[in-house]
Amino acid sequence: MKSRLKTGQKVQGAEIVCESLLRHGVSVIFGYPGGANIPIYDALYKYPELKHVLVRHEQGAAHAAEGYAWATGRPGVCFTTSGPGATNLVTGLADAMLDSIPMVCLTGQVPSKMLGTDAFQEADVLGVTLPVTKHNYLVTGAGDIAPSIYEAFHLATAGRPGPVVVDITKDAQANYAEFAEPEIMPEFNKKIKTDATADELDSLALLLNNAEKPLIIAGHGVLLSGDGKSLLKVAESQDIPVTLTQLGLSAIPHDHPLFMGMPGMHGAVSANRAPLEADVILALGMRFHDRVTGKVSAYAPQAKIIHIDIDPSELGKNVVPEIAIVGDVKTILNRLLPKLKKRKNPLWLDRFKLWKKEEEEKVINPELNADILKSAAVINLLSKETRGLATIVADVGQNQMYAAKYYCYRKYNSHFTSGGLGTMGFALPAGMGAKMADPDREVWIVIGDGGIQMTLSELATIAQEKLDIKIALLNNNYLGMVRQWQELFYKGNYSQVRLKNPDFQKLSEGFGIKSEKADNLNSAGQAIKNARDFKGPYLIEFVVAADENVFPMLPAGAGIDEMIISKADMK
Amino acid sequence: MHKNLQNFIIWAQNKPGVLFRILWLFRRKQLNIESVTAGHSEIPDITRITITVSNNGNKVKNMVHQLNKLVNVVKVEHLDTAMLVYREMALIKIALSEKEEKSQVLRIIEHFRGRVINMTNSVMVIEATGDENKIDAFYENIKNFNIVEFVRTGRAALLK
Ligand SMILES: Cc1ncc(C[n+]2csc(CCOP(=O)(O)OP(=O)(O)O)c2C)c(N)n1
Ligand SMILES: [Mg+2]
């Protein structure tokens, strides 16, 4: 552990902030200075070990911190000033809250004497961020800074991860206190159950050992629990097909024969048909989100559901499980493994071959062999060129679905996206954070022409930091996903979805970022090669079909039995 | 009326904002609060909060887990009314115009085992305790008099 201060040394609160971060192994901070956190920036000057990235908007800082957390499993850290600085974080906090991403955000606040007076740049940060954080603190004394930051780091990763805000008044930053490493108070170590009891394991094994058509649905919890190997071993021991939710993608290699795709609204045919026939569903670190289940009453009619999650409030919330176990997925699977009978299940797996073939014929092949450039083909090319080993940071919209479905993830934990909140503009700063956290990753940001303009200013940060990031901009000149809905469900009334876009080449060059444009498969392949050969940021604008639709799809409110596989299926 | 009230007894740290976090969560999860009682418990620095809601089913069950996730909450119990002994208290201020009225009111008070806790020539303040039904019945009996103010607490509840 790095440290600069000695226990008992009297320093300003701002220095205690920096020391506390240093002692938590923080390597990068994403932030923006202002009047109410200027003392922290002054202290930062003395802490060159703490690399600070000057983003261009605090929302960018929040998403960058999320990207950092995705890549490392450690809390991403943000600094902002009071008022507008802090409120600009809110979207990122809400995003992290829904997707269980650990984050510690330190916001400056007006001096404690002025709290509640509507002072300059005062916002009720505790009130504003309460609904979008695991917990938040208002710190008004220098001596309370270290305990709050230590608790914040503990809470951000304890059990189900999430964001924590520590709002520090300017006088607390400026006043002096003795630095001491606080002990985490016992109430914060509230018992988090991480393991299954022997009885729970036995009933779990009994159900699986007797299942004829078992199915695994694994989510973000698998990645958060730290490895996909135990999942793979359990699946392989009984030939259990594995589907991965959007946030669980890359938990196992996607070219594995037991991988059956992503379930849900734009999920794979196999992943949506299987719950209709399965007799046992093993749900791991996922939450039966409405985007996954469709109409709950039509979901998994015959299946006995085993639900394992570290958060007790998720069990029984959306579906009623036969067996519900609170605990850490990896720990439980490793203990379950010896209790499972080894067996093959060729009949059940044959069903999946059929479903996969259906999707290939009706959806995938036409997408990949179209005359004009299609997003699916671009992602497929990218997948081949990078051999499935890059980290894909996907934005929101059609581009996100193509990134989820057409990239063959072969590197563990290599797909980052905004799932729960669906925040357009997430990918650009999140990709930046992921690259800063782990420079050895090959990071590709996949983003639409709409989304890139939400947090576009972070191109300047990427350029300033000379990050070796590649940006695959899928330009369909539309808010494509909304356009798709309008085409399919609103009689083709295209209301406010057409974008007259800037010249992305010029824009990119303006930021000092190399770029090129590709509008056919050949030039697309060459552009990807060029980007990979270039050391530094590189933006490729892929001009893709304006009218593409992502299939299969479930209409809003429909059950998974009503999946539409192609436009021809629609009456 | 008050038949299916569900009770949450919550032990939480006595710190600024804690009650707000708890009440906010009920709103967030779309549960309507019927009553709240909060105050010190027998444990130093721990507040005991009793909240009743009339909803039932999955949402209420899930609420225990949601409440448990609040950092400042130390312990939560979700209990059926049958498992509790509890009281509400009501204070009623009545303006009196005639002598007869006074004796009528006193008779009602006696019937409900209430107490007069303040009296002037023209105004009487009455205290009544009991479960919600008793307080309701008391109110029904007295509502035709000239009620100036009426206030009632939520449940103060203990496990049987
Ligand atoms: C911040 C935000 N605003 C609005 C939406 C609603 N929305 C979802 S997808 C989408 C279209 C995205 O367009 P684009 O970024 O071009 O991606 P495409 O779907 O065309 O690939 C919109 C507007 C959202 N998800 N996030
Ligand atoms: Mg678009």
UniProtKB/TrEMBL annotation, chain A:
<dbReference type="GO" id="GO:0003984">
    <property type="term" value="F:acetolactate synthase activity"/>
</dbReference>
<comment type="similarity">
    <text>Belongs to the TPP enzyme family.</text>
</comment>
<keyword id="KW-0460">Magnesium</keyword>
<dbReference type="Pfam" id="PF02775">
    <property type="entry name" value="TPP_enzyme_C"/>
</dbReference>
<dbReference type="GO" id="GO:0005948">
    <property type="term" value="C:acetolactate synthase complex"/>
</dbReference>
<feature type="domain" description="Thiamine pyrophosphate enzyme TPP-binding">
    <location>
        <begin position="395"/>
        <end position="542"/>
    </location>
</feature>
<dbReference type="GO" id="GO:0009099">
    <property type="term" value="P:L-valine biosynthetic process"/>
</dbReference>
<keyword id="KW-0028">Amino-acid biosynthesis</keyword>
<feature type="domain" description="Thiamine pyrophosphate enzyme central">
    <location>
        <begin position="202"/>
        <end position="336"/>
    </location>
</feature>
<dbReference type="InterPro" id="IPR012001">
    <property type="entry name" value="Thiamin_PyroP_enz_TPP-bd_dom"/>
</dbReference>
<comment type="pathway">
    <text>Amino-acid biosynthesis; L-valine biosynthesis; L-valine from pyruvate: step 1/4.</text>
</comment>
<dbReference type="GO" id="GO:0000287">
    <property type="term" value="F:magnesium ion binding"/>
</dbReference>
<dbReference type="GO" id="GO:0009097">
    <property type="term" value="P:isoleucine biosynthetic process"/>
</dbReference>
<protein>
    <recommendedName>
        <fullName>Acetolactate synthase</fullName>
        <ecNumber>2.2.1.6</ecNumber>
    </recommendedName>
</protein>
<dbReference type="InterPro" id="IPR039368">
    <property type="entry name" value="AHAS_TPP"/>
</dbReference>
<dbReference type="InterPro" id="IPR012846">
    <property type="entry name" value="Acetolactate_synth_lsu"/>
</dbReference>
<dbReference type="InterPro" id="IPR011766">
    <property type="entry name" value="TPP_enzyme_TPP-bd"/>
</dbReference>
<comment type="pathway">
    <text>Amino-acid biosynthesis; L-isoleucine biosynthesis; L-isoleucine from 2-oxobutanoate: step 1/4.</text>
</comment>
<dbReference type="GO" id="GO:0050660">
    <property type="term" value="F:flavin adenine dinucleotide binding"/>
</dbReference>
<dbReference type="InterPro" id="IPR045229">
    <property type="entry name" value="TPP_enz"/>
</dbReference>
<keyword id="KW-0100">Branched-chain amino acid biosynthesis</keyword>
<dbReference type="GO" id="GO:0030976">
    <property type="term" value="F:thiamine pyrophosphate binding"/>
</dbReference>
TrEMBL record, chain B:
<dbReference type="InterPro" id="IPR039557">
    <property type="entry name" value="AHAS_ACT"/>
</dbReference>
<dbReference type="InterPro" id="IPR004789">
    <property type="entry name" value="Acetalactate_synth_ssu"/>
</dbReference>
<comment type="subunit">
    <text>Dimer of large and small chains.</text>
</comment>
<dbReference type="Pfam" id="PF10369">
    <property type="entry name" value="ALS_ss_C"/>
</dbReference>
<dbReference type="GO" id="GO:1990610">
    <property type="term" value="F:acetolactate synthase regulator activity"/>
</dbReference>
<dbReference type="InterPro" id="IPR054480">
    <property type="entry name" value="AHAS_small-like_ACT"/>
</dbReference>
<keyword id="KW-0028">Amino-acid biosynthesis</keyword>
<dbReference type="GO" id="GO:0003984">
    <property type="term" value="F:acetolactate synthase activity"/>
</dbReference>
<dbReference type="InterPro" id="IPR019455">
    <property type="entry name" value="Acetolactate_synth_ssu_C"/>
</dbReference>
<comment type="pathway">
    <text>Amino-acid biosynthesis; L-isoleucine biosynthesis; L-isoleucine from 2-oxobutanoate: step 1/4.</text>
</comment>
<dbReference type="InterPro" id="IPR002912">
    <property type="entry name" value="ACT_dom"/>
</dbReference>
<keyword id="KW-0100">Branched-chain amino acid biosynthesis</keyword>
<feature type="domain" description="ACT">
    <location>
        <begin position="7"/>
        <end position="81"/>
    </location>
</feature>
<protein>
    <recommendedName>
        <fullName>Acetolactate synthase small subunit</fullName>
        <ecNumber>2.2.1.6</ecNumber>
    </recommendedName>
</protein>
<dbReference type="GO" id="GO:0009099">
    <property type="term" value="P:L-valine biosynthetic process"/>
</dbReference>
<comment type="pathway">
    <text>Amino-acid biosynthesis; L-valine biosynthesis; L-valine from pyruvate: step 1/4.</text>
</comment>
<dbReference type="GO" id="GO:0009097">
    <property type="term" value="P:isoleucine biosynthetic process"/>
</dbReference>
<comment type="similarity">
    <text>Belongs to the acetolactate synthase small subunit family.</text>
</comment>
<dbReference type="InterPro" id="IPR027271">
    <property type="entry name" value="Acetolactate_synth/TF_NikR_C"/>
</dbReference>
<dbReference type="GO" id="GO:0005829">
    <property type="term" value="C:cytosol"/>
</dbReference>
<keyword id="KW-0808">Transferase</keyword>
<dbReference type="Pfam" id="PF22629">
    <property type="entry name" value="ACT_AHAS_ss"/>
</dbReference>
